[in-house]
Amino acid sequence: MHPVIILWAHPRSMSTAIERVMRERGDFDCLHEPFLHYYYIERSDRELPHFDSDGDHPTSYADTRDLILRRAQDAPVFAKDMSYYVMPEILQDAEFCRRARHCFLIRNPLRSIISYYRLDDTVSLDEIGIEAQWRHFEGLQALGIDDALVLEAEAVQADSAAAMAAFWQALGLDYRQQALNWERQSTPRDWQYVQGWHRSVSDSSGIRQASAQDSATLRSEFETLCLDAPRLRQYLDHHLPFYRRLQEHSLSRAVADASAR
Questions:
Q1: What are the φ/ψ torsions at residue 223 (nearest 5 degrees)?
Q2: Which of these, 3, 81, 119, 124, is most buried using a 10 Å CB contact count?
Q3: Cα dist. 76→3, 35, 69, 130, 229 in Å?
């Protein structure tokens, strides 16, 4: 059996861009949100906008897990997924939890909430997704799995080469500079059923740095959105503490602490 690496993200956290980088490495069989069908077809009473179901994809937790494990029989697997799709039941599957290497991608929830709301103004509290990530992270620790990695999207945007080098090193992978860029409009086939969520990655050729103006106007844009959707402030207040807890375990924090010694 080959390694299984899973990047557990929250929506609009740059996870598709990180997945695209991992695809460009060329040494992984990559899966795009394999548990999405399970959540939105079997578990949730909400319809996900921009989602055209792939009728051949498994829709149960067990069948989706088994798909991942079958793929790992032939090649190393990298999957990008969301913690809220599988929590809390994944923690009852200790064998699978121990089989995979778990990574968590976080982004400032102010940014991710704004980005999500632009695409789906009916987004729910749970779909912001960061609390589920923290529950997932601490649940793995309770199982004795203490090697989970936390990657910050802002660190990748600030210096994608350095951030991905640290990420790959922590996973025991070699550095591959060519993975940081891709051909514009070359959308992977298995993104088609949720293509509306990934246009920014498909329209780009690499990870773009956030502009200073973008950072300066972020709070103002959020306040404007809250005039029409005051629940967004509740979403931010609810998820921000979980984001900060995960941030304490991030690779960026670990590198900074090591440099200060």
A1: -60, -35
A2: 81
A3: 5, 18, 10, 27, 43
Quick one: how far is CA 128 from the chain centroid? 12
DSSP 50: T
Which of 124, 154, 88, 152 minimizes the C-alpha distance to 235? 124
**What pLDDT does 252 receive?**
84
**Across the strands, what pairs with 150?**
104, 250
CATH number for the domain that contains residue 161: 3.40.50
Tell me how many domains the chain contains.
1
- Token pair for residue 33? 């949100």
pLDDT, residue 201, reads 45
What confidence score (pLDDT) does residue 213 get?
55
Residues of the chain with pLDDT under 70: 49-55, 184-207, 210-213, 215-216, 254-261
Q: 125: domain range?
A: 4-260
Please report the pLDDT score of residue 127 as a whole number: 96
H/E stretch holding 61: helix 61-71
